[in-house]
Amino acid sequence: MPKKSYHMGNALSQIALDVYYKYYLWKAQNPEDIFYMTAAWNSHGLPYEKIYLEDVGTDPSYEDILKVAQKYISIAQEEENCFVDYNLKPKKNYIEYYDTDEEYIEYCKDKIQYLYREGFIKRKGEQLFLRLDKAIDLKSDLFINDIEFFPKHHKNSVLNILNTLNADYPLSKERKFTFKIEIEGSVYSINPIFQSILIPVFIREKYDMENLLEITGKGLVKGHYLMCAISTILNFKPPYKKVYMHGTVLGDDRKRMSKHSENVIRPSDLKGSRNFVRYVLLRTFSEKDKLVQLKKGRNEYRKIESKLDIILKYDFEIQDIDRTYLEKEMTRIYANLENFKLENAIEIFYSFMKRVRIKETSNKIVDKEAKALKDLCRIFFIG
Questions:
Q1: Does the structural domain 8-250 have CATH classification 3.40.50.620?
Q2: What are the average pLDDT values for consecutive 10-residue runs of the chain, which has 383 residues?
Q3: pTM (two decimals)
Q4: Which among 174, 185, 209, 316 counts the fewest CB atoms within 10 Å?
């Protein structure tokens, strides 16, 4: 089975992680100011078993599921190559783990056994349940308050989960394509959601990191409560310091883009330069649900492309512009970056780039404004 199934949501998160790694590195005064980025890839991103059941209507064997998966392997490989070609992943301060990684699976099994021994997991009939009432008793809601959420209202959404989740959360799920664990002579298939939510907890514990930044889709609000609850039980610390939840990517039909629907745009469909791809996706990165607007993005990018190339590749001079205006606009961009308003930041950047005039120069001594503009372009783009 392919471990990776890249899709537009992945691309959005990867570019945001890259932008913020470079931004925090650029502004850091001390090593502790730098945030470490986390990313988790889940094995159930392409639920082959569900596809088989929908297409065939019978209970599949593992071999049956593998046959269905074959038609997706080439797609996954194409998207993986696209991510490499477009350089969508930051090179440093970035930790990537798959929930199919052998070390991680063993970690999960060990923690499940621990949670069971301590009474946080109970058996009921043929299923395992996570006792969220005991996690709440440990004040996991207080640890949620230690996390900085962007947009801020998502903190309330996560806290409201306290009132909507059942006291007993199903930990096991009868699926063939998931790891299994034996408890007191009985074998259980672990809920794939649980298989993913332990990843930030695992990373924080493995690498002993305090400054973790998580960027993810807003549809995972429930998962973030579960991460906080389990992190409270295991570490008495929140799983990360900051979390940004971006909106859902919409297809042309203005419905949620899905890998199994007709409305999908894949990263490999974004033909063009690496920086064009980044521009389009930065325009899409928002707290609201957004369309990937390829045509609009292409027309906009053409208007700034030549200037951007010069800024990224050569020494240049800024001409005929009010330096006070330049400083004001760049300050606005940084303020939006601080609040994870990437969509606003790139819109200000685009308007500014249309107005600014630059000229390539052989003068190796560039002024501070030109240096600041080059630094800003390198935060957003590859160069």
A1: yes
A2: 50 79 81 66 44 53 53 50 48 56 84 90 86 74 81 83 73 70 86 75 77 79 79 80 85 72 67 83 88 87 94 87 87 94 94 91 78 91 83
A3: 0.76
A4: 185
